[in-house]
Design goal:
heterodimer, A: mainly alpha, Sodium/glucose cotransporter, two-stranded antiparallel ribbon, 69% helix, 1% strand, B: mainly alpha, 0% strand, elongated
């Protein structure tokens, strides 16, 4: 441990600095009253372009991504690079969708995607399904942020769970006090550190290793020597479809996650969102370069600690950087975990408050009640995430996160298509959700990996062979599950119309989807009529 | 409950430009090859990174052309 003393001191210093900022954030852009969900959970819906860029960037490109994507390239090669096309296609796809969601949420005061579904389709049941899906998909994501911190701590020789518990206790305390303002303020530090570290890394490390040519050749040599069929510096005939469907499916899923919606709804107006959709890909470039750290690790002959591939990047930094700068790099990853973890816990807490507590437990909840319940729930969510790490195998969190991506996609028909059309019947959407969930679970359960001896939930690449096709090709299970969902939703809609089931009342109007800052709001939206 | 300017809409022919950065990165035959290399990067890597620039360009143009006059 003593050989890492410099790293530990720098890491601890930066971590405490940022924690201090988290508490001070309650005073930043101070509102008259923090005791409403609009203020605590959405920062007053007032963030401009810069804050939104740092906040949403810090939210989507998490510490886990920064650790896991290079680990994927290190282990399997080109397939891990799907993160780049994924984060390119997402912005043009959601460019027009998110401004509609922002507008209708602005008019009606929606805080969560389930709020919108509740008002659009007049179905508390469908809203509950959307809310529960969001909470279940988010929880393991928070737990994975801890995995990112753990990978860094392990490299510094710090073992045991106490440091993680302390870090999360501090995080929980300032999120409780400052709400969304805390991660918004910390995101500035996090992203500055990450950009600094990566720019230095992609200049210094290739220079030390003798240039990019050598790095890619070293990767090729490693995969040529490996017996595994799916790895390599390029895609092969059997994993191209998986690569493309995984990129597309992940892109469709990204802005269905409650924490992404929270970041978007916190922005001030429609232009802020559009401008960010064209500016956020700066992070994708960063992610692409970070991904290549995996190949640098191959060229540098870096080995993970034990069997934990996630320690590859921290190990590379340890080998290539002087101690003090490695400390800065570790702090960047550690702080990088705090921003998304805070936003995710806020988003999950808002879902519980708005769509479970207010809908089923206390219909006449005041703004102050909602803020109080959300604050407490955000604490419970973090305790849950820590318990996940303490009592469950890390691999299990990764499985859950994998499942999370597949299940959050099943909210697409109600949330994303619902923003454009009221054609679907609420009963059809519920049936589609059930069918998509079931199909997704069955497929994931049947994905095995003979190389690791894992029989179930061993990835998201579903072999088309199992559907009777004579091929070795694989496809992203989430996309197939979504197709099942859509087909059943369409059939269910026809059946429900045929049976003359009630359509429910849509309280949104076409012009609500184009409203902008300064337009009047529906002050007291009655969700309970 | 109505908002002013009922004739507002998100429709614009510029929106079609958004299809380019959605489709390009999903066509592996464009980039799934080693050569030509650029600064030592195989085509698979440099071309996909270059698509980021395509994405930024297209979304920026659409944003600028559809921005609301204030």
């Amino acid at each position: 441990m003593s050989e890492h003393l410099t790293e530990i001191i720098i890491f601890t210093f930066l971590f405490l600095l940022v924690s201090g900022m988290g508490f001070v954030a309650a005073r930043w852009r101070r509102p008259n009253d923090l005791a409403t969900l609009d203020e605590w959970g959405l920062g007053g819906r007032s963030f401009g372009s810069w804050i939104t860029w740092f906040l949403v960037g810090g939210d989507l490109y998490t510490a886990y991504t920064f650790v896991a994507v290079p680990a994927l390239l290190w282990g399997a090669g080109a397939t891990g690079f799907f993160a780049v096309p994924y984060t390119i296609v997402v912005y043009p796809i959601v460019f027009l969708v998110l401004v509609r969601l922002w507008s209708v949420s602005h008019v009606h005061g929606f805080v969560t995607p389930a709020d919108f579904v509740r008002a659009r389709f007049d179905s508390p049941t469908l809203a509950l399904l959307i809310a529960v899906t969001g909470i279940v998909a988010t929880m393991p994501y928070i737990a994975l942020q801890l995995v990112g911190i753990e990978a860094v701590l392990k490299t510094m020789g710090v073992t045991g769970h106490l440091p993680i518990i302390i870090a999360f206790a501090i995080l929980a305390a300032y999120t409780y006090q400052s709400g969304l303002r805390a991660p918004a303020l910390i995101a500035f530090v996090k992203d500055t550190l990450i950009y600094l570290v990566i720019i230095v890394a992609v200049i210094v490390i290739p220079a030390k290793l003798g240039g990019w040519d050598g790095i890619f050749d070293a990767a090729k040599a490693k995969f040529d020597a490996s017996p595994a069929p799916g790895d390599g510096p390029l895609l092969n005939a059997n994993n191209q479809l998986q690569y493309v469907t995984l990129a597309l499916g992940s892109a469709l899923a990204l802005f269905l996650y409650p924490h992404s919606v929270t970041g978007v709804l916190a922005s001030r107006n429609r232009d802020v969102i559009k401008r960010n959709m064209s500016a956020l890909p700066a992070y994708s470039l960063l992610l692409g370069l970070i991904a290549l750290l995996g190949y640098m690790a191959i060229a540098a002959g870096v080995k993970p600690i034990g069997t934990d591939n996630n320690t590859i990047v921290p190990q590379l930094f340890d080998k290539m950087f002087p101690d003090w700068f490695a400390g800065v790099a570790y702090a960047a990853v550690g702080i990088g975990a705090l921003v998304p973890a805070a936003i995710m816990s806020i988003a999950a807490a808002n879902l519980f408050t708005r769509n479970i507590y207010r809908e089923y437990l206390k219909r006449d909840a005041t703004d102050a009640d909602e803020a109080r319940v959300s604050k407490i729930t955000s604490l419970l969510v973090k305790v849950g995430a820590v318990l996940c790490i303490l009592f469950l195998d890390t691999g299990f969190s990764i499985d859950l996160q994998l499942i999370g991506g597949v299940i959050i996609l099943q909210t697409l028909p109600a949330v994303a298509l619902g923003l454009y059309t009221r054609w679907f019947h609420r009963a059809g959407l519920i049936a589609g959700w059930i069918a998509g969930m079931a199909a997704g679970m069955i497929m994931l359960y049947n994905i095995s990996n003979p190389a690791t001896g894992k029989m179930h939930f061993a990835g998201s690449a579903f072999p088309l062979e199992q559907l009777g096709f004579d091929t070795k090709m694989t496809v992203y299970a989430g996309i197939l599950a979504l197709l099942v969902n859509l087909a059943v939703a369409v059939i269910g809609t026809f059946v429900a119309r045929g049976a003359r089931l009630g359509e429910g009342n849509d309280v949104t109007q076409p012009d609500h989807y184009f409203a902008d800052e300064g337009d009047p709001r529906v002050k007291e939206l009655d969700l309970t009529h | 409950m109505t908002t002013p300017g009922k004739d507002r809409s998100d429709r614009s022919p510029w929106n079609w430009l958004l299809i380019v950065p959605i489709v390009l990165p999903l066509l592996p035959f464009l980039f799934n090859a080693d050569g030509p290399r650029l600064f030592g990067f195989p085509r698979f890597y440099w071309l996909q990174l270059a698509f980021i620039v395509v994405g930024v360009t297209c979304t920026t143009i659409v944003y600028q052309m559809t921005k609301r006059k204030r």
